[in-house]
Structures are given as structure tokens and as C-alpha cells.
Amino acid sequence: MEIEETIQWHPAFCSAIELELWENKKDLKYEREHNLSKMPLRIDFLVIKKKPNAVIKNEIGDFFLKNNIFEYKSPGDSMDAGTFYKAFSYACLYKDETENAGEILNMDTTITLVREQKPEKLLRQLGEKYELTRRAEGIYRIRGMLFPVQFLVTGEMNEEGHVFLTSLTRTMSREQAQRQLDKASSLKNNEDRKNADSVVNVASEANINLFKKMIQEGDQMCEELKEMLAPEIIEFKVLLAEQKAMLADNATKLADKDAKLADKDAELADNAAKLANQDAQIKMLKKMLAEAGIKA
């Protein structure tokens, strides 16, 4: 079983965004799942509803309007024109079912697309037709479209300023892990700590070797980790990593055995061919001797 297949990136992303915008907690309402229209169309996108006249302090949300739709792509997933059109269609359907669709020029919805790697081709295509600006490290905005649009490139964002959002990666450094755990340990609010738990869990699954090393070293960092994760979860994750390594080792050994058996099969086949050739030569000699009147 591949550990990657079990990682629940979307819930952790929603938790990370809530932690990013904690200063405006009272001004924002989060819808982590939404059924679009009357169709059974359940899509994993995040909707953040902002109270009127609220001013968002975080640079991610300082362009928020009433309804703010987030489309998140986990590490390794692609983001192309198809992704963009889908997010745009979500915004259109959401506006149709929640507001007066006739007021088409009354823009009260924004779109945010999030990915670790920068979608170079998509941004280049959009920049050729619309105004593309860089709001901050890893934050790009598009103007001139039906909805205000921004891209969050988490791999480019400031790690100290966006601790939890930048933690959603498979390439976490020890410094990142320490910063994440320090930040999580400093949280006092129970809801905030639950969100931090969600992010730490995903980060530990996606970077199992790093966290396994931390646990084995047993330093203060390990103690902080144990406070965030239940002991049975830690044990399970370590066991998964060990089982994965054991399966890989067994697969290598089986491949070696198969190769040796194949060599033996080839050797036996070669010997059989030689014996068959010798039998044919003996039969020919016996025939020649018989024709010459000599008994073999």
C-alpha cells in the first residue's frame, strides 16, 4: 500500500487557510464542502464568506469579496486551463444558486487557485490577455475577468509568514518542521489547535522519513510532535514506513531470485541442446558403421 494514496490533502489545506486568516476569524465563515445546484455534484472546493465591510489583514485575503472560492491542487497534481475553467464554472454555479444571477456586473465573488508549483504555462496564457500582477511572494492576481482571480504558489511563499500553508509539501525541511511545530504549540484556541493537528498529520504522512527520524532521535522536537499526534498514530506511521521499506527489499530479493532462476533455466536449456546434438552425432556414427559392415 502506498502511503501517498492515504493522504487527505484537501481537509488539511482548509485547516491551513483558517490558520492563515485567524486574525479575521469572526469576519469569515467557511464552507469546506458544497453541493452545487440540485444535481448530486459534490466537489471539494472551499468557500469563504466574508462579512460586509470587514477588512482582511492577511495578504491572501485582502482582495476578498462576499464569496470567495478556493480550488486546491495537492503536490504533484496538474493545474492547466481545464482546472481554471472548472474553478470559473464553480464560481458561476455558486453565484447562480446563492445570489441574483441577473445582477451579472455586481461582482461579489473571487476565485483563488492554489498549487505548490507555479503553473507557468497557465499564467503565461492568462497574462497575454489580462492584467497579471504579483501581489507578494507566491501571490499572483488577474484583473479584467468576470471574477477577480488570484493564484497562490505555496512553493514560492514566505515560509515564516505562511507556516502552515507552506507545510503542505512532500519536501519539508527540518527547519520547516521545527517552525511548524513551534507555531502549533503556541496556539491557545482549541479550534486552532485542531486545525494545526490536521496540517501536522498530513505533513508527517507526506514526509514520513523526516518525521520518523525526529521520533527516533527523541529530542525536544519529538516531544512536541507527540503532543500533536496520538502515540498510536505515530506508531502506525512508522510501521507503514517500515513495511514499505521491507516490501521494497523483498521485491528486490525476489527480482534477484527470478534473475538467478532465469540464468539456471537458460543453462539447463543450453545443456539439453548440447545433449541432443551429441545424441544426433552418435546416431550418425552408428549408421555409418553399420553401412560399412562394422558392428558398433
Overview of the molecule:
With 296 residues, this protein is α+β, with helices and mostly antiparallel strands. It folds into two domains: 227 residues, no CATH class; 66 residues. It contains eight helices and nine strands. The strands form two sheets. The protein has a seven-stranded mixed sheet with strand order 1-4-5-6-9-8-7, sandwiched between helices. Strands 2-3 form a two-stranded antiparallel sheet. It starts with 8 loop residues before the first helix and ends in a 5-residue tail after the last helix. The model has no long low-confidence stretch (mean pLDDT 82).
> Low-confidence segments, ≥5 residues, pLDDT <50?
none
Please give the order of strands in the largest beta sheet: 1-4-5-6-9-8-7
Number of helical elements: 8
Query: How does the helix and strand content classify structurally?
Result: alpha+beta
Number of DSSP strand runs: 9
The overall pLDDT, averaged over residues, is 82
The rounded distance between the terminal residues' Cα atoms is: 67 Å
As a percent range, the share of helical residues equals 40-55%
Series of H and E elements: HEEEEEHEHEEEHHHHH
Report the sheet-strand fraction.
5-15%
Q: How many separate domains?
A: 2
**Globular, elongated, flat, extended or rod-shaped: what is the shape?**
elongated
The description of the largest β-sheet is: 7 strands, mixed
The value of Rg in angstroms is 31 Å
